[in-house]
Amino acid sequence: MKRHILLLLTLSVLALVVGCGAAEPAMRAVQPAQPTAAPAMEAPSAPAAVDESASGYAPSSQDQERMIVYTGSLSLQVNDTAETVERISGILQSVNGYIASKSLVAYGEDKLRGTIVVRIPAPALDTTLDQIKALGIKVLREDANSNDVTAEYVDLDARRKNLEAYEVELTELLKTVRERTGKAEDILAVYNQLTEVRGEIEQIRGRQNYLQNTSTLATYTIEFVPVEEVVVEGTPGWDPGRTAGRALDQLVTTLQALADVAIILALSVLPVLIILLIPLVILVLIVRALVKRRTQKKPVPAS
After folding, report:
1. Per-residue pLDDT tens digits for 240-280
2. Which residue, of 15, 21, 145, 284, has the greatest Cβ tally within 10 A?
């Protein structure tokens, strides 16, 4: 019982130290870390943070190299989509960029239209876009966006270092508990805390890798619109074949119109006529029956 209470007190002291050590890095970051339900898991005090405090210096988003995520889209009018895509691929290879995805469909005769998504190194973005735009006949539309993620990266880095320091402390505590008590419930309590910390560290690393990747390589979507072919016709002369073709087209159109009228009559007018004729036919039958009955009742005159 006393050992179990001692373990709980040790975890409480670690949580208190972690909470105190997290306050100073959070104030130095441009954007403060988001609060969580477990402050001891969120920002423990790392040895590196203590050394920086002693020297009176802590890294900030102003010292960090700016991390800017560039995105945009470009719509180009081109003569040959396939050739333009091939030339763009060559331009990207020269600056260590690449085509991330491609979606092209057939359009007209021997024409393609669609989009590609390219990744361009940020330092070569402007020059590469100029070369790509020069391949088209005309730029139909261009959009560009930029997002500075430096502050977010610095904040994530501080949180990761603190959690890594806390991970080391929990690992040492786990060894101590195994050696001194050996109780399964004590070991499980420390192990669960250690697993949670490691999970948060992996999430932060994943987000940092994403920010590094998107800030290093700009993402642009390029749309290709093929030029419409313009057919120039000369002064037409007399063409019997063309006249016969037009006559046949008019004949087909006329027959189609007559067929439409016949269908309309059959489906709309004919049922109405049938409904109207049914009472008339019944009336005629009744009259014929009455006349026939009267004829049968008349006496036959003697000869």
Report:
1. 777 887 888 888 888 888 888 888 888 887 888 888 888 88
2. 21
State the residue for tokens 């002369």. Answer: 237
Distance CA 50, CA 46 (A): 7
Report the C-alpha gap between 55 and 237 in whole angstroms.
Answer: 95
Q: How many beta carbons lie within 10 A of that of residue 214, not counting itself?
A: 19
CA distances for 96 relative to 87, 147, 177, 215, angstroms? 14, 22, 52, 15
The secondary element (H helix, E strand) that includes residue 275 is helix 270-297
User: Are 152 and 26 a contacting pair, CB within 8 Å?
Assistant: no
The residue assigned the tokens 């988003």 is: 61
DSSP letter for each residue of 129-194: HHHHHHTSSEEEEEEEEEEE-HHHHHHHHHHHHHHHHHHHHHHHHHHHHHHHT--HHHHHHHHHHH
Q: What is the dihedral of CA 189, 190, 195, 201, to 10 degrees?
A: 130
Cα separation of the two ends of the chain = 142
Is pTM beyond 0.90? Reply is no
φ/ψ of residue 263, rounded to 5: -65, -40
How many Cβ atoms from other residues are within 10 Å of residue 152's Cβ?
18
In the chain, the domains with their CATH numbers are: 8-57+150-209 (no CATH), 68-147+222-226 (3.30.70)
Using 50, 70 and 90 to split pLDDT, how confident is the model at 8? low
pLDDT score, position 144: 92
Nearest to 70 by CA among 205, 221, 224, 203: 221
How confident is the model over 161-204, as pLDDT tens digits? 999 999 999 999 888 888 888 788 888 988 999 999 999 999 99
Q: What is the DSSP string of 44-72?
A: PPPHHHHHHHHHT----TTTSPP-EEEEE
Return d(Cα 35, Cα 32) in angstroms, integer.
Answer: 9
